[in-house]
# Entry
Amino acid sequence: MRVLAIALACLAVTACSKSTTADLSHDVKDAGHELKAEADKIKTDPDIRKADADAKKVGHDLSVSVKEAAADAKIEADKAGDKAKHTADDVKQDVHDDSHS
# Structure
């Protein structure tokens, strides 16, 4: 008896679920169409397009500045390395001269 009651309850839920599923499917499709329409509006909005162009320009300008700063840092690092090498060579020469005096 209990199995029959559970089976009938499952059938009732299934029957209700089909119409609920159809309604939900329709609602989801409508929401998808509305979302696409809003996305299309945003995509063509002049303010959004200008902001996008501005962001791209700022990104480009920033990358140019970073590349220039990196190049300058490399030059300064090379100079510091050369100076350190010359100082080490001078110290080595002084130690060599002192050991032979």
The chain has two helices and no strands. The mean pLDDT is 84.
